[in-house]
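Researcher: We plan to redesign the surface later, but first we want a full-length starting point. Tokens attached.
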């Protein structure tokens, strides 16, 4: 493939595909250069280094994922919105394992200062949780609970770590129902007397 056909967007999209195929941990500039049939140095016109490439893949994946979640939760509230959010999250994680792994890395804040996908992720997630009547700091705590539950479940499922004969989807649905119950009965942060 000719070097003239490369662009930053094309390099990042190919890197995301490579991450899904080979694993995010195996994403290197050398592997990507081989994909395009160019020398490693040719990629430095489009990305500074591997860290920037991985950050850009994380931002691309985060934008794709929140687009799918937003579409799933549109017009829903409460338990229906939570279930739609959870299902879209899980489907993306299982369908795009390398991209999903990218969304879990710490990112270079200088590259994300004006990332619309991150703002949109916060808006959609917090908006869905506000239906449960949560305010800060409970919103942040609830986001952390959901993220850790969804991520843990998806990571274990992708690794084939659920060995019991119970259907994995049935357990997922039960977990989402338990999260809904927890959110409805959230232990509210009490104001501190000064």
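Model: Full-length starting sequence:
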């Amino acid at each position: 493939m000719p070097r003239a056909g490369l662009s930053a967007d094309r390099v990042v999209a190919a890197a995301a595909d490579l991450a899904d195929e080979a694993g995010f941990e195996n994403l290197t500039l050398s592997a990507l250069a081989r994909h395009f049939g160019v020398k490693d140095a040719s990629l430095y016109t489009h990305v500074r280094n591997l860290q920037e490439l991985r950050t850009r893949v994380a931002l691309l994946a985060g934008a794709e994922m929140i687009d799918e979640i937003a579409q799933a939760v549109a017009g829903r509230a409460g338990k229906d919105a939570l279930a739609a959010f959870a299902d879209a999250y899980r489907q993306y994680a299982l369908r795009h394992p390398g991209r999903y792994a990218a969304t879990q890395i710490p990112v270079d804040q200088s590259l994300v200062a004006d990332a619309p996908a991150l703002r949109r992720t916060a808006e959609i997630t917090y908006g869905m949780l506000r239906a449960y009547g949560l305010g800060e700091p409970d919103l942040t705590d609830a986001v952390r609970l959901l993220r850790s539950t969804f991520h843990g479940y998806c990571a274990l499922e992708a690794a084939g770590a659920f060995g019991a004969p119970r259907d994995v989807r049935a357990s997922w649905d039960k977990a989402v129902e338990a999260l809904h119950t927890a959110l409805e009965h959230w232990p509210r942060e009490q104001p501190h007397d000064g």
